[in-house]
Amino acid sequence: MQRRFGVAVDPAQVAACVGTKELVAGLPSWLRLLNPGAGPVLHPDLAYPSYAMGAFFAGVDAVAFSPTAGPALCRWVNSPSNPTGQLDDLEAAASWAAGNETPVLSDECYAELTWQDDPHTILEYPGGPVLALHSLSKRSNLAGLRAGFFAGDGELMEHLVEVRRHAGLMVPGPVQEAAAAALDDDAHAAAQAERYRARLERFAAGLRAWGLSDVELPAGGIYLWVRSPDGDGWALASRLAEAAGAVVAPGALYGTSGTAHVRIAMTSPDEAIDRVLARLSESTF
Fold this sequence. Notes:
It is a single chain. The chain is an alpha/beta fold. The protein has two domains: 2-184, Aspartate Aminotransferase, domain 2, CATH 3.40.640.10; 187-281, Aspartate Aminotransferase, domain 1 (Alpha-Beta Complex), CATH 3.90.1150.10. The chain is 39% helix and 15% strand. It has helices at residues 2-5, 20-34, 50-58, 90-100, 154-166, 173-183, 186-210, 233-244, 270-281, and strands at 14-17, 41-43, 62-64, 74-78, 104-107, 130-135, 148-152, 223-227, 249-250, 261-265. A seven-stranded mixed beta sheet has the order 1-7-6-5-4-2-3, with helices on both faces. Strand 2, helix 3 (50-58) and strand 3 (62-64) form a beta-alpha-beta unit. The longest helix has 25 residues, at 186-210. The radius of gyration is 19 Å and the shape is globular. It starts with a helix and ends with a helix.
């Protein structure tokens, strides 16, 4: 965190998790032990579905965040965003945490894949109770390792480390050694970031040549968020499957305001992406 984000973090306020998806789904339940009567889980309007699933596990509502939202069990921010790639105002989120005495959980698994700004973490901004979650899945292409870490507010960290230990959510020593080695090496992360960036640019150009004129590169992350010309994301997903064998996610899976879009992930090998682009070049939208 010091090397990549310029933030000094007390080692006592850092802990490993079994991949951040486990933590995302479990955090509301662990936080509810601290505040049983708290309100809903707040999340971005377009969001990773596991935020809502974590609320379901905790037995509370999941509600899209609005500027007028008051105290809640917790609030999720995700910058760069999955699925849109947009960047959130983490300083404002930290200030909101202080003003509402509500933990803000910053999912930063794409932070080192920020294209239109320097990478940021919510831990840069003092104030309210905040946690930052970091993953090796995208940064290091190590999703199968199931390793990540979280850091932040001392009181929250003390509680979470203790209850998670009793739940058996401990990362095996060899996995932690591998994770530490990956986090200590910036060269491979830079190479992986460049690989994602090149794929985004190449695929966006291919979609424009196919006939989708409204294709923009994201501010961060590894997804193209593409609007269907007729406003039907499911139809565009079907068309991409039929024309090029590309399996993409209809935007409705991330929230009702995403129904006109599809999310296209740049996670396939370059050879597979080249095959899809070649098929698109042989057809028109």
